[in-house]
Amino acid sequence: MADFLDINQYAAPTKAETLAGMKEIVPVIKDLLTKAIVENAIRKLEKIPEPECSQFVTATKARFLAERDNSIRRRLAAAKIQEPIMQGHDLSGKERFRPETRHMITLEVQKDCFVGFKGERFRFYLSDEGYRNAKRSEQEGEIKIKSHAAVVAGKLYPDKKPKQQER
Question: How far is residue 44's CA from residue 103's CA, in Å, rounded to a whole number?
């Protein structure tokens, strides 16, 4: 693997240019293992005749770039399927500190309704009446309450520990 990365990093159009770039760094490498790996890669490349060596370096670089691009695509795809962004009240919003606030809920909309569109996530600080309305919406299948915490003077008292940190 290290040979693969070193060759890619110093890949040039010709064998001579690739080897010159790699040989140039050997004297300044402080880590002995890294130095040994680079020297070993140089020795291996010197044994490969032209034009096979240049073709090998070009193919190695292309494979490295394809894997890197694939990795970027995978990370972008994973980011797209992550949970939706939390909407509604901020975690430390002013609603949390209102005297009538008794509940904090996070919810996911199950079907398009007055709260939002299916799949959206919200955090709300609610009075007792607001919480009863949310429970009614949950019974009607409009929303799913994911977590609840009692609120007293702005301090949160979760019903249970969350499985993962809120985003």
Answer: 68
**Which residue in 85, 13, 1 sits closest to 54, CA to CA?**
13
pLDDT value at 115 more than 60: yes
d(CA 40, CA 56): 16
Mean pLDDT of the region 113-130: 92
- Alpha-carbon span 65 to 141, nearest angstrom: 48
Mean pLDDT, range 144-148, rounded to an integer: 95
Tracing tokens 């199950």 back to the chain, one arrives at: 110
| Cα 133–Cα 137–Cα 141 angle in degrees, nearest 5 | 170
Q: Three-class SS string for the chain?
A: CHHHHHHHHCCCCCHHHHHHHHHHHHHHCCCHHHHHHHHHHHHHHHHCCCCHHHHHHHHHHHHHHHHHHHHHHHHHHHHHCCCCCEEECCCCCHHHHCCCCCEEEEEEECCCCCCCCCCCEEEEEECHHHHHHHHHHHHCCCEEEEEEEEEECCEEEECCCCCCCCC
